[in-house]
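**Backbone description:**
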Amino acid sequence: MTITLKEVKTKKDLKEFIYLPEKIHKDHKNWLPPIYMDEKKFFNPEKNLSFRGCDYRFILAYKDNIPVGRIMGIINHQHNEFFKLKNARFSYLECYNDPEVFHTLINEIENWGKQKGMNKIIGPFGFTDRDIQGFLIEGFEYEPVIDSACNFEYMPEMMVKEGYEKEIDCVIYRFPLTIELPEIYQRIFQRITSKKDYQFLEFTTRRQLKKYIVPVLRMVNESFKDIYGFMPMDEKEMFELAKRYLPVLDPRFIKVVTKGDEVAAFLISMPNMYRGIKKAKGRILPFGIFHILHAMKHAKSVNTMLGAVAPAYQKQGLDIFLSIKTIESTKKANMTSIDTHVVMEDNDDMMAELKRYGAFLLKKFRVFQKKL
């Protein structure tokens, strides 16, 4: 059957683009649906600030008038100008196990990138490193992790057949709480927490958290500036993120260190809610929220969503405070493990720390690249 491509232009097209993956992954045991309420905002240029300064395309592929694949193309001009690049990006690529459909979709974005004067294409990669990135290449046997790819094994295989090579890998590690930390970590913890010029903060209510969210995000801009694909947030984006995430944060798993008026370090973790999202099929309303809240209440692991130590305060042991206190809170909640957020493989300090802690590799993702 002939493959036809259609540019997403209408609300009906966009709805088809957003919900197509749940048809493709209908029988995929380890696929995690997105929160569709969030997806509708994310893919709406009027509501998602990330579209600013970007060229983009949404494409659907059809066979016999039946949707069989989708892809998004992005050119982030701000990022390209800042790093002196000419990169196009593809993202949110989904299709059945059909190399012809895969080729047609990826080739369409490659040609678009060339027409726009780009000399390289990378992906899967969204607007920034805060979006889901890469195709899963190891760890298919494990349950899904929030905010990470859940693709079939055939997707990275088809990338290679299209002439793509590795750009960068990123990983998720798991720390079982049965592992005892080396004694040296307790000594570092005692030393750092004895310092009177730091404030070591833990929380019991979201109201206590509220005033720290935006200062934490300001610190992220400073700390993440050298991370692959990172783009700094402006104040409007920070307040949008604070408004979005504050209602679902669990104060027990937020740790912050301040010095004077500055945020020196922080770690944000959340109870693993994937079972609730899966049971809700990504729908918050009318009853999905109750499945998600129930899953969070009965979770056996936490996901570390975001964390950093400000450059001026690194190598002082603040990360040890964050880790040990998160471990204590997780054990107190009768949980069994901690899963990291996605970590770039070239983050040498973080990778070394994870191995010293005794964590093991749970999942590996690959961002691919190809010269245009």
